[in-house]
Structures are given as structure tokens and as C-alpha cells.
């Protein structure tokens, strides 16, 4: 009988391993397809930028995410309380002629595709009081020991909320890493990396949203985890630029809805998936038309953090990462290794050495 | 709708039968379980080998008319040895019968397990009786006898998926069902966030589920009532039973204190499964038997059900019942406030319920009872995050007093009348910072409301064919202060921006009152001795609502009393039924056709925040609902092979317009399916009694996948790719089906008073990965659809039960 119970026990434990699982679906049909106009309008204390495009009717495939429909022709205007206006292209280019002033009010007007849109009047929030950003090494016992984030660094933003209520915050981060190769050479069917000619950096950004309303922490110092960085090398120094934004109530509501849509973990208590259409932009020429996006008027503060991952921690093994491709080493040492230029300046790559960079 | 009407009509022609009726006479008595002394409801009593008879009520009592002469009387009840006796009737006779449990020929008819004649005789529609002894032998998940999972085998009872927190009756929401344990309501019917139901099966005597004809004594919910009775502890013999399982251990004691006068029931169930998770995460992962840890979960629970019965004399009975439950569940990422603080969450929740009842029997035709109930449900959600740890407490307190009179002017006429006074106290949210937290304390004021109902139900025979049960319930409801009610601009949607002011309601002042009349009617037309046709109508109102936008509610779901902006939900249910049994009582067939209208239901605005928002009406959208369906049930009740099969076609739809349809309506103002809309479902159970000691059961269930909202496209905001959702519930998850197996062994007792039982279960025998939900996550090429499955491989368990008499 003992043996039977042991076998049943093991079977039960093994059953538990898959008591709740997520499986990818390959044969699900998309019941309907629709497109909407999308406005990405960021206006800060240092620049303004607006991109108007159509959404994609696809949800997965070759055209997603990099080949969205191109930006549309049209113009946008931002008008302050004094009636001063600045005109923008709607192709997503930064316009540094715009310098938002905290406390000033602004309204956005857009004309494109024969339609007119306008925002409600928004007030630029105060610049946030980001005090410090720190990294804390720890071990997440609930993660498997082979998980990349089992040992790692919690990146925590410490800031003081303004004394008056009604403040809303959002955090972004950008991770800079020196680019290993600027091109490849194929020898014997093997792809080998070629070095860059000078400084060249890759930039990664957050793809999840971190948001906070001060409704429950008004006037307090708050420590808020922003992301987790693996205890892994290379690089030994992990460079992060953390941006804290003070955003408007409407932008907070919009991004909060986006966050709940994109960060669903599929548990049985998920809230239903629903899209919140723009909270502060509407179509004046065609009142029934739904528009996505938000007139995001914010002011921001940046902090640089470089995590030293060379430090050893007791009972924590550092993960060693290897490059996807081997570097090119000519057999003949007299042959110089060709180097390649970094390429055009983009949102995801730059030759400019970031502020506070450490090798 | 045409489809189900056709099916209903066809079923009437397929199973027609007409034959002359037989006259009836009079007799009274009570039928009990010989072993436990529990009254048996639904036992059938037939006189002189006739085909017609009567059935016992919920107290095991029956009344029969007959001539004053010699008779043969026959008693039958599913799972019990039939009993017959010849007797001479002179004048008035009371007959108490103890029936023996028939384990060697137990028909495993669990949920329709009342005597079939009851279905034919009574006017009730959509009423199911659950046989607890049989339920214990059904296939179960993880070895836990689970009432909520079992009733999902019934036609018209569904859930949004495995592990859901409650059941959906005929398209209704989980909060539209009252669940009473000895008159004490429960507000969260599950342990471990929905994995197991809270009803401790060992401590239960019987369960009646009213999903159609709801007696006038019940009110306050628009879908169903589940009336669960605790065991009546034996006043003569000490009894103990219990069990050891992988999830929990159970012990049930019946202790007579003063013979025939005072006895106590003590029943406890305690889970100890935390060690399983620890063992699993450490030993099995390290040994590479398993490759995926159970993430940061801790779970434990207990429940206690106690009852004291005191019978000072034959006229009076005093009963004290209480039910306590407690859960502690730790998990990641299940809960967040809209203010942006979330992650590691511990839910601590439970009930503290008690009831006192005095029953006075004036004479055989007049009975009075007085029942007082207090039910407390509370949940503390603790979030441990950075320097913002907090406790969020929500509470519901229910107090009620119910005097009731039962009067039988003649054996063919029964009147039940009474009143029920209820006080609801709701603490929607109290946020308290933990030590060192920078969270500001916050509390939403307590809500109070009073519901007073007067009711009368009259059951009488118009003729031998016609039996009528008519009822009326009048309810007065008042939402009272102290209260700060937001007032909104006329003609505008209710949003924080359209609040024009606040109206202060002083303590005890009425913020809003409602008066509602609820007619109830059930009629039976007997076609012959073994078939009848019925029609029923109910109107129900609900004054306390659960506010939850999760797929299935979390334990900290907010409750809300009706006010001027959130009127009571109301439903009207019309049911037609046809019931038939084969002459030898081996087979039974029933079909019910229903249509339900619902008013003042609500849905939620997009991206609603519900937990700590003061003016919750700003997050709700008014609408109406309708559901309809056809339920067919075939039952084989006797023989070595027993079982049943049910098919249900049902739809559940809603139309949500809000206060300002042009701005607020959902899905273009059209009807769209609710989360519980599952058009087709088939449930089947077959049981083989292999011999006196071994029993094997299989259950099979199939249902159409429930609706979910699929994206219609994507867009980007900087580096975040976002799905676009437009119309709600525009697609369906995959269909659900599952086969379970149970093998029960009752070894011959080695000692006179000691018996044991082993139950071996395999849940989800062929390991289907049924979808609980579909959802979308980021991928390299946009958004990848995934499904969440629960219990994805065969779940094996073994339970040991013992009994000492």
C-alpha cells in the first residue's frame, strides 16, 4: 500500500506541474479587422513631436511591428494660453522649437486625411522630483535557478511626490550597449562579425509601462521598482537612462488602459481586454470617428545609472552570455580587420557617447 | 429561439402518455435515514400499489389522503431500500419511517436524485436535489468532494472555466445566486481562489438548487438559490467520520450530550497543501522530475461547521449553527489598484456566520419558526511592494430575522407565510499602510441598507390533475445614510467630471427607497400517473450587487447596495416543463424550456477602476439582458448501471446602452453574448456497481467555448505595441470537454462500528488542455495569441475515508 501511495503522490505532484499553463495558439482566426487613426503626440519641456498614422489591421505577421503604414501628410498646431502657436509636421520628427512651460496650458489641432482633430486644453505638469535611482542585488526565490532573472538587480526610482494631490507619473528607460559588430563577413558559410569604425551604440527601450498616481502616496517619498536587470555579462557595466515623467490625468488614464491591455499575464482573474480610445483628442469634422493615442503633455527628469556587474555576490553565479556570432580574425595577422561605419543615427542606434558612459 | 421551441415541442410528442387518474386519500408521517436520523426529502410514498403517490418535503414530512381501511404503503427513495408495510388506518395516523441506505444497489443519480415521482407530482420547475452520499463517490479534482463542480453537471449550470469563483445559472452572473448554509448566506463560495468549493461535504445533509421555481420565502437574487442544510447531529449515538486527502483532512463528529434532547455537530476541514508546493518547488525541481516551479504561491484554508440542536420537548426545537472559513493565498500579479501599486499579493478571506432558529410545532397543521442570522465576510488583501506595502480590507455584514408560519388547513392545501428583515452593511474599502509604508490611509464610508419582505405561498390542488403553487413577495428596500451621494449633471454620462455636487444624507436618512412586488407561480397539469406538464413564472429582485470586472471575481470583489443610480436588478423567468418516467421507475425524462428577461444589469466602462473609487456609478453602464434555453435530461435510476445524460441549448445576451446611448452604448447598441454564453452543453454520468464493495464512475462534460474579446488590429505607441479591441465578446475560446474517472472501494467492515472507504480519482482522464481563456502577449512579430489552461494533464488522487458509529 505504501508503494501505491508513493506512486500516487508522485503522480499528483507531477500533475501540479501543469495545473495551470499557457500554450501558444496557431489556429485562431481574427474575427474582424479594423483600422483607426493613431496620434502619438509627445510635448515636453524640451521638444515636441507628433506622429499621425493608421493602425494596422494585422495583429501578428511579417508586417508587424516594423512596417506599419507610413505617416500621413498633414500638419499640427500647438497653441498656448496666449494664442502663440507652433506648427509641426506629423511625421514623428522632433521639433526642438517647442519648449513647454510647466503650468502653461496647450491645445493641439491636427488636419490630415481631410479631417480635423483637436485636443482638450491640457496643462503641462511640473517637472518631477526624481531623487535617485539605485540598483539592489537580490535573488528571486520564486524564479527557477536557471531563469535569467533569478539573481539580478532591481532598479528602484526614489522620488518625492509633490505636496498637492493629483499628480501622475510614468517611467521610461533606455539601455545603451556598445555595438559588437557593424557588419558581417561570410567565410565558409559562417557569418563572422566585423568591428565598428569608432563609437557605436545600440539603444533598447522599455516595452512595458510603469505608471503611478499619487492618490495613495500624496506628498511622500516613494521607492518604485522600474525594471529588473539580470546578473549576467557582458557587458560588465550595464548602462541605463531612467526618465521620470509628470503626465496629465488624461494621459495617465490612457496609458493605464494601455498597460492593462499589454501586460495581461493571462491568469484566470484578468480583466477583459478593452481599448480605451483617446481620452483627450477627438475628431471635430467627423464626430463619430474614434481616434487612438493621446495628447501627452509632460515634463521629465533623467537619471543615469551604471550597474557594476563585475562585483561578486555570495551564492550567486553570474550568467556568461556569448555573442551570436564569432568576430572575424584573419588567418594572416598582416591582413588588417576591416571596420565599418556605425550607420545612420536612429532611435535605436547612435554614435554619440551617452552621458556618464563607463566601459 | 425557434430551434429550442422545435426541440421542446418534439420532446412532447416523443414521450407522450395519457391514462386515467387514480383517486387519493389521507395519511401523515415523516421519513428519515435509519442510520443518521436525517429527514429524507423527496421520498415517494405510494398506496395500494398505485402508480400515483406523494413525496416528502424538505423536512421529510408527507401527507396523503386515503380511505379509512386497510392499505399497503410503499416508501421509496433513491439510494435506499424500498420499504412496504400493510396497515389499518383508523382516524388520524402519524407514521415515522426509517429507511436503510442501500449501498449495494445505490443508483448514482446525484443531482436529479430525488424520487422521480416528485418531478411528476410537484408543480416545481428547475429544482434539483443533490444526494450527498452519492456525490462522495463521483470523480473529483485532487480528491476534494466539490459541490460547485458537481452541480455544473446539471443542465443550466455552467461556469466561465475551471477554477472559477462561483457558478452561472441559466446565463446569470455568479453574484445572482444566493448560497445558504443552514440559512446563513455565503458571499464567496470557494477556497483557494476558486479551485475548491467551501461546502464541507461531510457536514451536509442535503442541497436543493432552485434555478427555476423559487419559493416565495426566498428573494434577493435574480438567478438562483442554493439551499444547503447541515447534518442534524444524532441525539442518540456518537458518530465520527473523516478522511485523509492530498489537499485536505476532514473530521466530522456527532456528539449526543443529553439523549434525545441535546446534541452537537463538529465538522472541520483543514488544508495542508503548502507543504506540497514547497516539496514540489524544492525536491521535484531539484531532482529534475519537474521543470517549472509553482511561482511564489502559498495556499491554505480551513472551514468549521458546527451545529447544536436542543429539543426540550416534542413541540420545540432550538438550533444553533455556525460556519467559519478562512483562506490564505499568496500569489503574484493577480491584483492591482488603478493607482498603480501591485504585484506580490496575499489574500486572507473568510466567513464568520452563525444562525439561531426556534421551531415551534403547535399541532400537525400549524408550525412556527423564527430564524436569526448573522453573516460576516471579510477579505484583507496585502500587497508587499517597495516602501508602499498596504492592507486593503473589504467587508460585507448581513443580518436577518425571519419569522415564518406553515399552515395546512387541509392535506391538499399548504400555506407558508412570513417576513424577512435584512440589514446589509458593506465596507467597500479600507486601505491601511503597513509599518514603514508611505501609503496614505484611505477608507470609503460604510454603506447600509435595509430590505424588508413579506411573503405568502399557497399550494393547493384545483383538481386531481391541477396543482398550483402561487406566491407573492413584497419587498421594501431602503438605502440609508450617513451617506454622501454625488449628483450628476442632467443628460450627461456619469463621470467624475459631470458631478455637479454632493447630497448629504444624515444617519438613518433614506437615500433611496424601492418597493417591489414579486409574483411567483408554478402549476402542474398531470397527464397521467407517470407524466406531467408544468408552467412557472418568477419575478426576482436583487438589491446587493458584486462589482467585479475580472473574468471570475477575486475574493476582494467589492459589493454595492442599490442606490438611486444603481437600481435593483430584476429578472422575470418563464418556464415550461414536461416530466415523464417509465412505469417501472427505472427511467426518467424531463425537459424544460425557459426565457429570462433581466433589467438594470450593468457592465463596466473601458479601463474601469473599481476597488477604491468613491462614486462607483461612474464606472458602470446600465443595460438589460435576456437568456433562454432548452434543457433535456435522461436518467437511469435503478440497476447495476445507473446514470444520466443532459443536453442544454442556451443563450445569454445583453444590450448595454448606458445613460447616454450615443456616447456610452457598447457594441453599437446591439445585443451581444455575455461571458457565460455557451450555447451547447452535454453532461453525462455513468456508474457501475460492480459488486457490493466496488463502484466505478465516469463523468463526461462538453460545452461550447465561452465568448472573449479578440483584437481587430494593432497600433504602436513609441516602442509599445498595443492590440486594438472594439466590439466586446466578438469571438469564442475553444470548446471544452473532459472525461473523469472514479473508483470507490468499500472494504467489508472488520469491526462492527468501523468502516472505511477508498476513493481513487483521475480528473481529466485523457489530459485535454481545455482553454480557460484566450489572451494576447507580445511577440517578435506583433501579438501572439495564447490560451490559459487549468488542470492540463490527468490529475490523480486518492482519498481515504473512515466512519465510526
Fraction of residues of chain B in helices? under 10%
Please, what is the average pLDDT of chain B? 85
User: In angstroms, what is the radius of gyration of chain B?
Assistant: 27 Å
Which architecture of the domain at 34-124 and 272-297 in chain A would the CATH scheme give at its second level?
Answer: Sandwich
The largest pleated sheet of chain A is described as:
6 strands, antiparallel
| Large-scale geometry of chain B | globular
Instruction: Report the end-to-end length of chain A measured between terminal Cα atoms.
Output: 64 Å
Low-confidence stretches of chain A: none
Provide a count of the helices of chain A.
2
Order of SSEs of chain A: HEEEEEEEEEEEEEEEEEEEHEEEEEE
Q: Uncertain segments of chain B of ≥5 residues (pLDDT<50)?
A: 12-23, 103-116
Note the overall shape of chain A. globular
* End-to-end CA span of chain B: 54 Å
Amino acid at each position: 500500500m505504501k508503494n501505491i501511495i508513493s506512486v500516487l503522490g508522485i503522480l499528483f505532484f507531477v500533475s501540479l506541474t501543469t495545473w495551470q499553463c499557457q500554450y501558444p495558439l496557431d489556429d485562431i482566426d481574427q474575427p474582424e479587422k479594423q483600422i483607426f487613426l493613431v496620434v502619438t503626440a509627445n510635448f515636453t519641456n524640451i521638444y515636441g513631436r507628433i506622429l499621425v498614422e493608421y493602425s494596422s489591421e494585422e495583429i501578428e505577421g511579417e508586417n508587424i511591428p516594423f512596417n506599419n503604414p507610413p505617416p500621413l501628410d498633414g500638419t499640427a498646431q500647438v497653441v498656448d494660453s496666449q494664442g502663440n502657436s507652433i506648427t509641426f509636421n506629423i511625421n514623428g520628427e522632433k521639433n526642438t522649437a517647442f519648449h513647454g512651460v510647466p503650468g502653461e496650458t496647450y491645445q493641439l489641432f491636427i488636419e490630415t486625411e481631410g479631417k480635423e482633430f483637436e485636443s482638450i486644453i491640457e496643462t503641462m505638469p511640473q517637472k518631477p522630483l526624481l531623487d535617485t535611482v539605485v540598483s539592489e542585488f537580490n535573488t528571486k526565490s520564486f524564479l527557477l535557478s536557471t531563469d535569467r532573472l533569478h539573481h539580478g538587480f532591481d532598479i528602484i526610482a526614489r522620488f518625492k511626490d509633490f505636496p498637492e494631490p493629483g499628480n501622475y507619473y510614468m517611467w521610461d528607460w533606455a539601455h545603451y550597449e556598445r555595438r559588437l559588430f557593424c557588419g558581417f563577413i561570410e567565410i565558409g558559410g559562417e557569418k563572422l562579425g566585423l568591428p565598428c569604425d569608432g563609437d557605436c551604440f545600440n539603444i533598447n527601450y522599455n516595452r512595458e509601462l510603469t505608471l503611478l498616481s499619487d492618490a495613495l502616496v500624496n506628498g511622500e517619498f516613494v521607492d518604485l521598482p522600474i525594471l529588473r536587470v539580470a546578473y549576467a555579462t557582458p557587458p560588465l557595466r550595464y548602462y541605463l537612462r531612467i526618465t521620470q515623467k509628470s503626465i496629465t490625468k488624461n494621459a495617465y488614464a490612457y496609458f493605464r488602459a494601455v498597460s492593462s491591455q499589454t501586460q495581461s499575464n493571462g491568469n484566470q482573474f484578468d480583466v477583459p481586454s478593452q481599448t480605451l480610445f483617446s481620452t483627450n483628442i477627438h475628431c471635430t469634422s467627423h464626430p463619430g470617428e474614434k481616434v487612438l493615442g493621446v495628447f501627452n503633455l509632460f515634463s521629465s527628469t533623467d537619471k543615469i545609472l551604471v550597474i557594476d556587474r563585475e562585483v561578486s555576490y555570495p551564492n550567486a553565479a553570474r550568467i556568461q552570455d556569448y555573442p551570436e556570432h564569432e568576430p572575424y580574425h584573419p588567418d594572416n595577422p598582416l591582413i588588417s580587420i576591416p571596420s565599418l561605419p556605425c550607420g545612420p543615427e536612429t532611435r535605436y542606434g547612435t554614435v554619440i557617447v551617452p552621458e556618464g558612459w563607463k566601459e | 429561439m425557434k430551434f429550442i421551441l422545435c426541440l421542446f415541442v418534439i420532446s412532447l410528442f416523443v414521450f407522450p402518455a395519457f391514462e386515467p387518474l387514480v383517486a387519493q386519500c389521507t395519511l401523515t408521517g415523516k421519513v428519515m435515514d435509519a442510520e443518521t436520523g436525517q429527514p429524507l426529502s423527496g421520498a415517494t410514498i405510494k398506496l395500494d400499489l398505485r402508480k400515483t403517490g406523494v413525496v416528502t418535503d424538505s423536512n421529510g414530512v408527507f401527507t396523503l389522503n386515503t380511505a379509512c381501511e386497510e392499505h399497503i404503503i410503499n416508501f421509496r427513495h433513491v439510494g435506499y431500500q424500498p420499504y412496504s408495510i400493510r396497515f389499518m388506518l383508523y382516524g388520524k395516523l402519524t407514521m415515522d419511517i426509517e429507511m436503510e441506505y442501500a449501498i449495494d444497489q445505490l443508483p448514482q443519480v446525484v443531482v436529479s436524485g430525488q424520487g422521480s415521482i416528485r418531478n411528476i407530482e410537484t408543480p416545481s420547475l428547475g429544482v434539483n436535489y443533490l444526494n450527498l452520499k452519492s456525490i462522495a463517490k463521483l470523480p473529483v479534482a485532487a480528491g476534494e468532494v466539490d459541490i460547485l463542480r458537481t452541480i455544473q453537471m446539471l443542465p443550466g449550470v455552467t461556469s466561465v472555466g475551471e477554477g472559477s469563483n462561483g457558478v452561472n445559472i441559466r446565463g446569470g452572473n455568479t453574484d445572482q445566486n444566493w448560497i445558504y448554509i443552514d440559512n446563513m448566506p455565503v458571499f464567496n463560495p470557494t477556497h483557494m481562489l476558486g479551485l475548491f468549493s467551501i461546502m464541507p461535504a461531510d457536514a451536509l445533509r442535503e442541497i436543493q438548487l432552485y434555478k427555476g421555481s423559487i419559493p416565495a420565502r426566498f428573494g434577493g437574487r435574480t438567478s438562483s438559490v442554493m439551499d444547503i442544510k447541515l447534518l442534524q447531529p444524532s441525539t442518540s449515538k456518537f458518530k465520527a467520520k473523516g478522511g485523509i486527502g492530498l489537499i485536505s483532512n476532514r473530521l466530522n463528529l456527532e456528539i449526543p450530550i443529553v439523549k434525545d434532547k441535546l446534541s452537537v455537530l463538529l465538522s472541520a476541514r483543514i488544508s495542508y497543501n503548502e507543504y506540497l508546493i514547497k516539496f514540489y518547488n524544492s525536491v521535484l525541481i531539484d531532482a529534475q522530475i519537474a521543470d517549472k516551479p509553482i511561482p511564489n504561491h502559498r495556499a491554505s484554508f480551513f472551514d468549521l461547521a458546527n451545529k447544536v440542536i436542543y429539543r426540550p420537548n416534542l413541540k420545540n426545537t432550538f438550533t444553533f449553527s455556525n460556519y467559519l472559513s478562512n483562506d490564505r493565498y499568496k500569489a503574484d500579479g493577480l491584483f492591482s489598484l488603478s493607482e498603480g501599486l501591485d504585484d506580490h499579493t496575499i489574500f486572507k478571506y473568510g466567513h464568520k456566520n452563525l444562525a439561531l432558529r426556534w421551531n415551534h410545532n403547535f399541532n400537525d397543521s400549524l408550525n412556527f419558526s423564527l430564524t436569526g442570522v448573522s453573516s460576516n465576510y471579510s477579505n484583507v488583501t496585502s500587497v508587499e511592494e517597495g516602501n508602499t506595502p498596504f492592507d486593503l480590507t473589504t467587508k460585507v455584514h448581513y443580518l436577518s430575522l425571519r419569522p415564518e408560519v406553515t399552515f395546512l388547513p387541509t392535506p391538499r392545501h399548504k400555506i407558508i407565510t412570513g417576513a424577512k428583515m435584512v440589514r446589509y452593511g458593506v465596507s467597500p474599502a479600507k486601505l491601511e499602510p503597513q509599518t514603514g509604508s508611505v501609503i496614505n490611509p484611505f477608507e470609503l464610508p460604510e454603506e447600509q441598507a435595509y430590505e424588508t419582505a413579506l411573503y405568502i405561498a399557497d399550494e393547493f390542488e384545483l383538481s386531481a390533475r391541477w396543482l398550483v403553487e402561487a406566491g407573492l413577495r413584497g419587498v421594501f428596500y431602503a438605502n440609508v445614510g450617513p451617506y454622501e451621494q454625488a449628483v450628476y449633471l442632467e443628460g450627461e454620462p456619469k463621470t467624475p467630471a459631470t458631478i455637479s455636487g454632493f447630497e448629504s444624507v444624515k444617519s438613518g436618512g433614506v437615500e433611496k427607497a424601492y418597493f417591489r412586488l414579486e409574483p411567483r407561480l408554478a402549476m402542474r397539469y398531470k397527464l397521467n400517473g407517470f407524466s406531467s406538464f408544468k408552467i412557472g413564472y418568477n419575478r426576482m429582485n436583487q438589491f446587493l450587487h458584486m462589482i467585479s470586472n475580472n473574468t471570475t471575481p477575486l475574493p476582494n470583489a467589492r459589493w454595492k447596495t442599490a442606490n438611486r443610480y444603481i437600481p435593483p436588478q430584476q429578472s422575470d423567468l418563464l418556464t415550461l416543463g414536461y416530466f415523464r418516467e417509465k412505469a417501472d421507475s427505472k427511467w426518467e425524462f424531463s425537459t424544460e424550456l425557459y426565457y429570462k428577461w433581466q433589467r438594470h444589469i450593468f457592465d463596466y466602462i473601458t479601463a474601469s477602476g473599481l476597488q477604491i473609487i468613491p462614486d462607483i456609478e461612474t464606472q458602470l453602464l446600465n443595460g438589460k439582458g435576456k437568456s433562454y434555453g432548452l434543457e433535456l435530461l435522461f436518467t437511469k435510476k435503478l440497476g447495476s448501471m445507473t446514470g444520466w445524460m443532459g443536453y442544454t441549448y442556451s443563450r445569454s445576451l445583453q444590450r448595454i446602452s448606458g445613460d447616454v446611448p450615443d456616447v456610452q452604448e457598447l457594441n453599437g447598441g446591439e445585443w451581444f453574448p455575455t461571458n457565460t454564453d455557451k450555447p451547447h452543453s452535454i453532461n453525462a454520468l455513468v456508474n457501475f456497481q460492480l459488486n457490493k464493495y466496488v463502484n466505478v464512475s465516469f463523468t463526461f462534460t462538453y460545452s461550447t467555448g465561452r465568448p472573449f474579446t479578440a483584437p481587430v488590429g494593432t497600433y504602436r505607441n513609441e516602442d509599445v505595441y498595443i492590440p486594438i479591441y472594439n466590439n466586446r465578446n466578438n469571438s469564442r475560446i475553444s470548446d471544452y470537454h473532459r472525461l473523469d474517472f472514479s473508483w470507490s472501494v468499500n472494504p467489508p467492515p472488520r469491526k462492527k462500528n468501523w468502516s472505511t472507504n477508498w476513493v481513487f480519482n483521475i480528473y481529466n482522464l485523457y489530459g485535454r488542455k481545455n482553454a480557460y481563456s484566450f489572451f494576447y502577449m507580445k511577440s517578435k512579430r506583433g501579438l501572439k495569441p495564447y490560451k490559459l489552461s487549468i488542470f492540463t494533464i490527468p490529475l490523480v488522487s486518492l482519498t481515504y475515508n473512515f466512519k465510526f458509529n
